[in-house]
Amino acid sequence: MPVLLRIAFILTAVMVALIIVGGAGLLLDLAPFEQMVWVFMAALAIATLDFIVIVLGVAAALPRRP
What is the pLDDT of residues 22-58, one digit of tens each? Predict the structure, then answer.
């Protein structure tokens, strides 16, 4: 498995975990709203990095022109 694909999988797993934790925190009122907003902002930042890694991975997998 290519390295960029592994990084994309890890970033996606962390992002999904943050969204689940943030959603549970909001639903169960486990923390103040401001802290949950920071959790979702972190998930958004990781989603941006994940998108960049996926684009780089696709670009690296494309055939090269001679």
Answer: 888 888 888 788 888 888 899 899 999 999 988 888 8
Pairs from 41-48 (Cβ < 8 Å, separation ≥ 24): 42/18, 43/15, 43/18, 43/19, 46/11, 46/14, 46/15, 46/18, 47/15
Q: What is the pTM of this model?
A: 0.74
Residues 26 and 11: their CA atoms lie apart, in Å, by: 22
How far apart, in whole angstroms, are the C-alpha atoms of residue 61 and residue 4? 10
Measure the N-to-C terminal CA separation of the chain; round to a whole number of Å.
Answer: 25
Residue 59: exposure state from Cβ atoms within 10 A (0-12, 13-18, ≥19): exposed
